[in-house]
Design a protein that fits this description.
The protein is an alpha/beta fold. The chain has nine helices and seven strands. α3 links the parallel β1 and β2.
Length: about 250
């Protein structure tokens, strides 16, 4: 459970409540992300890679290389459990740990690259900076990733407005985007790519279930009411559609 006055007016949320939906419906990163991460050296042969805020382990599993040492950490035990189960099922040797990103307990100078997808702005800025500096090898690289939906897309706006009807404290401001342009370290480089992500009515509903404003923070009764109304609302749309997104990749070399 997380409660942070910077987020949703301090309303508590728990990503563990969304674990199954997160694993099923948020595995939507476009191929351009994985291609660019490979170009940046993530998971290359003989390297060590740490994914902080790994959730259900989507990034390490989709960019897996048996010749690299890969670790993922997250504070949610439920999400790490699903990540471990998925890695075991696919016979992928990934070390998943329950840990705060700001205090992993991992050895100094251990990693060539550290990635953080959809999560960096949640961390304590000063503590995460110190931990990253401690963990990265000389000339190591930090890479932050954000896949942000377009706020002028009707599918997005309708769903956001319905969530806010039931959870008015949910903050859909641009904090995550602002973080991608934050010079936490010197010589930041930020890249942006336009992409369209395909959905069905079912998978879009699942995607919205796996956001902070619904399952992670609503009580059961409120969630069920929202879910029923959202499902009915989506019947007005085609069964298959695409949603415009922007992919941001920010990286620093220490």
């Amino acid at each position: 459970m997380i409660s942070d006055k910077r987020i949703d007016k301090g309303k508590a949320f728990d990503w563990g409540n969304t674990s199954e939906e997160y694993a099923k419906y948020r595995n939507i990163y476009p191929s351009i992300l994985y291609d660019r991460l490979r170009e940046l050296g993530v998971g290359r042969d003989g390297s060590s890679w740490l994914d902080i805020g790994t959730g259900t382990g989507i990034l390490p599993q989709n960019l897996y290389n048996e010749k690299a040492e890969i670790t993922g950490v997250d504070i949610s035990e439920k999400q790490i459990l699903l990540a471990r189960e998925s890695a075991k099922k696919s016979e992928r040797n990934i070390n998943y740990l329950v840990s705060y990103a700001e205090a992993t307990g991992l050895p100094d100078n251990s990693f060539d690259t550290i990635t953080a997808a959809q999560c960096f702005w949640y961390f304590d800025r000063d503590k995460i900076k110190a931990e990253i500096c401690r963990l990265l090898k000389p000339n190591g690289k930090l890479i932050k990733i954000l896949l942000d939906w377009s706020y002028d897309d009707d599918y997005v706006l309708s769903s956001i407005n319905l969530i806010k009807k039931y959870n008015p404290d949910w903050d859909v401001s641009k904090n995550a985007l602002k973080d991608m342009y934050d010079d936490l370290f010197n010589a930041r480089k930020t890249e942006c790519f336009n992409c369209e992500i395909p959905f069905t009515r079912e998978s879009w509903h699942g995607r919205m279930c796996a956001c902070r404003g619904t399952l992670a923070s609503m009580d059961k009764e409120t969630f069920e009411k929202w879910s029923k109304e959202h499902t009915e609302m989506l019947k007005e749309y085609p069964n298959e559609f695409t949603v415009k997104h922007k992919l941001y990749i920010t990286y620093f070399q220490l």
